Amino acid sequence: MNFVRYEQVQQVAVLSLNNPPVNALAHELRRDLAAALDRALVDGAVQAVVLTGTDKAFCAGADLPELGTPKAAQDPDIFTLIREIEAARKPVVAAIAGICMGGGLEIALACHYRVALSDAQISFPEIKLGLMPGAGGTQRLPRLTGLTWALNLMLSGETVRAERLMETALFDRVVARDLIRQACEVAMEIVDAGEAPRRTADLSVDEPYAQSLLQFARNTVRPRLKGGNAAPLRVIDALAASVDKPLQEGLRLEREAFAALEQAPYSRAMRHIFRAERLAAKVAGIPGDTRARAIERVAVIGAGTMGGGIAMAFLNADIPVVLLDRSDEDVERGLANVRRNYETTVQRGRLSEDAMAQRMARLSGATAYGAIADADLVIEAVFENMAVKEDVFRKLDAVMKPGAILATNTSRLDVDRIAAFTQRPADVLGMHFFSPANVMKLLEVVRGAATAPDVLHTVMQLARRIGKVAVVSGVCDGFIGNRMITFYLEQSMVLLEEGASPQQIDRALETWGMAMGPFRMSDLAGLDIGYTIRQRQYAEDPGARRSPIADKVFEAGRLGQKNGKGWYKYVPGQRSAQPDPEVQALIAAHFAATNRTPRAFSDEEIVERCIYALVNEGAYILQEGIAARASDIDLVYLHGYGFPRWRGGPMMAAQTVGLPSVVRAIRRIRSRPDSAFKAPAPLLLQLAEQNKGFE
Ligand code: NAD
Asked: Which residue range forms the structural domain that includes residue 311?
């Protein structure tokens, strides 16, 4: 295939990039572009060149699958191309429609003139991956737009329509139609005027107050930098060079800075997540020609906390929902909760009255199963109790139309057992939403032993439609996320019972980057949840580790945020947690009663115990095939549990430290008699031994 189309329109050679869908700069495209340019430059009948893409994309920059492989550097690389375009003796005009970003924008900047459709989408998104433009963008853009626009585009990574840049010298024409004709016109005007090509490199940055502007930018970004992210400051340094250094010097600085950012853990983590989100959609065992079932109407059983949130997630995507509960009062309360939730959003100015009315109009309530029989998908969110779930699923099996998908939002129960309550286990799976379900991005899609591929496929597609990040999990107690959190919370309890305070434990983990430490998180979820789970464990396994302090705190009537007292106390209407002497007294009484002295912990040990408990269980989950890949586990933690994005998720964080060091730390922790730390997963040991990572 030819990746660049070559046409001659009178005296102009029109080169059209042709690497669908977005003209990524793969080696084949670079090769054919260099060849087409050579042809145009030697052809005596050609006076000028127009470089263009398709309606959808001028060029979206680097080819992601190629990044980091030798192919990315294969000749001609992007630097060579840019040099040759800029050096061309015949005028080269970029004609830009659709996406023009990153390396694609850098190519456009190296052209001598630029014509764009008014709605062309211009951006430098590198900053979102902890990177910066690396092929001259930081040197050429400010020469055309001035510093303010360059700072805005490169520090935000946001997309701007070409027409907004009309005030700058970036575009010679911004047009509504006839892009190629107008670009050819610009080219021929230059030829007819006998002018030499105008090279961006020969311009200088026109900015009277450059130094103060740059200093202001530094002061603004510095306090917001997280996790060792150096990209914003490097962008500003490179832009500073564009003002007072020759182009070649600026380009050298830019390349050095780019290379350093590319190696830094921050950008590695951000790129890992970027890839992880694309990979998670690829599910093994779904044939390529699988067709999704149509989902037009949804029913939710159980109008409680989760049921209401789940209903909103669908209403927000314009999908009608019937909410079913046991009694009219239960239904009314559920509907009222949804309404109140939307009203708050309207009051905060984030939703219009109209939009709210439309959403509420798509929501109805019911107590009889007849009202939901024709739904395409039903999601059960009743009490976490197998007998209740059984009753619901038997009823659903009896009434739902053939082909309807039956999902459970259970947090920990066996999805295969639930499926077996029906005559159609192939249509059953878990859709595990996180609270609040209308806000949290994560959806664990639990694949049962009998779940049909098209059912899984349908739900994965639907997840995207309602704005969720879906990760497939196999069936086990707690699936990926809650199964891992059990071990994390258990370590936080061990630390507590050996002498660390809830405040110290929370602070250590929050300083490390967790959005919320384990005790604040438990207060938010409600202390009844952990208590119920523990009571079940004590009953099922007399040898189960007990958490006496946690039990006493709950038994003292402390439910968490919902009644203003849990591990902390809460002032009504405020979310900030304050240490509570009552809890401190309960803890002190425990040490007195058991005749033990509290031990001191370093923050480092706290973090290692809790985070490596996640990593270790993650490795078991991977080894058992509950998760298909380590990056899926990372996504679960990022989108469901407030894990810091810049650490890339627990598995990536462990890899950054080095698995051999993680294993050594786990052995150190386990050498203490009461560590309660599970034996390291065989997979973890094996990878550490081979000095490998999880991927
Ligand atoms: P909830 O107590 O707030 O709501 C449960 C609702 O189910 C109530 O409105 C109740 O009236 C209704 N219900 C009970 N039995 C019913 C029946 N037989 N038929 C119809 N309706 C019935 O509980 P919740 O927190 O919303 O949890 C619901 C499910 O979601 C549970 O399986 C839970 O494990 C799971 N879950 C909860 C969370 C969370 O953070 N709360 C997160 C993920 C999953």
From this structure: 298-476
Mutate which of 306, 411, 477 for ligand 1? The one with the most ligand atoms within 8 Å of its CB, which is: 306
| 560 touches ligand 1 (CB under 6 Å) | no
Look at the chain and report how many structural domains it folds into. 3
We report the CATH number of the domain holding residue 567 as 1.10.1040.10
597 part of a folded domain: no
Q: Is residue 482 within 6 Å of ligand 1 at its C-beta?
A: no
The mean pLDDT of the chain is 96
Please tell me the distance between residue 384's alpha carbon and the centre of ligand 1 in angstroms.
Answer: 6
**62 belongs to a structural domain:** yes
User: Which domain CATH number covers 193?
Assistant: 3.90.226.10
- Cβ-based neighbours of 646, under 8 Å, separated by 6 or more: 130, 226, 227, 228, 229, 266, 269, 270, 513
Question: What SS3 state is found at 660?
Answer: helix
Q: Which of 86, 126, 490, 617 is catalytic?
A: 126
- Of 120, 124, 126, 96, the closest CA to residue 108 belongs to 96
- Judge if 437 and 552 occupy the same domain: no
Judgement on whether residues 136 and 220 belong to the same structural domain of the protein: yes
CA of 354 from ligand 1 middle (Å) equals 30
Is the CB of 633 within 6 Å of ligand 1? no
Out of 322, 369, 379, 382, give the residue to mutate to test ligand 1, the one with the largest number of ligand atoms within 8 Å of its CB: 382
| pLDDT tens, position by position, 317-336 | 999 999 999 999 999 999 99
Does residue 525 share a domain with residue 394?
A: no
Does one domain contain both 457 and 571?
A: no
Beta bridge partners of 32: none
pLDDT digits (tens, 9 = 90+) for 146-194: 999 999 999 999 999 999 999 999 999 999 999 999 999 999 999 999 9
Domain identity same for 151 and 28:
yes
Determine whether 461 is exposed, middle or buried from the number of CB atoms within 10 Å of its CB (0-12, 13-18, 19+). middle
Percent of the chain exceeding pLDDT 90 equals 95
pLDDT band at residue 1 using 50, 70 and 90 as cut-offs: low
Question: Which pLDDT score, from 0 to 100, does residue 616 have?
Answer: 98
Q: What is the CATH number of the domain that holds 376?
A: 3.40.50.720
Catalytic residue among 106, 207, 380, 608: 106
pTM of the model: 0.92
pLDDT tens digits for range 538-551: 999 998 899 999 99
In this structure, what token pair is assigned to residue 108? Answer: 């456009």
Give the up-direction half-sphere exposure of residue 103: CA atoms within 13 A in the CB hemisphere. 22
Distance 302 CA to ligand 1 centre (A): 6
Are residues 537 and 414 part of one domain?
Answer: no
Atom of ligand 1 nearest to the CA of 307: 26
Together in a domain, 239 and 343 = no
- The helix (run of H) or strand (run of E) holding residue 199 is none
With a 6 A CB cut-off, is 301 part of the ligand 1 pocket?
yes
Instruction: Give one DSSP letter per residue of 467-506, joined into a string.
Output: T-EEEEE-SSTTHHHHHHHHHHHHHHHHHHHHT--HHHHH
Same domain for 218 and 316?
no
State which of 572, 591, 610 marks the end of a domain. Answer: 591
Catalytic residue check, 126: yes
pLDDT band at 576 (very low <50, low <70, confident <90, very high): confident
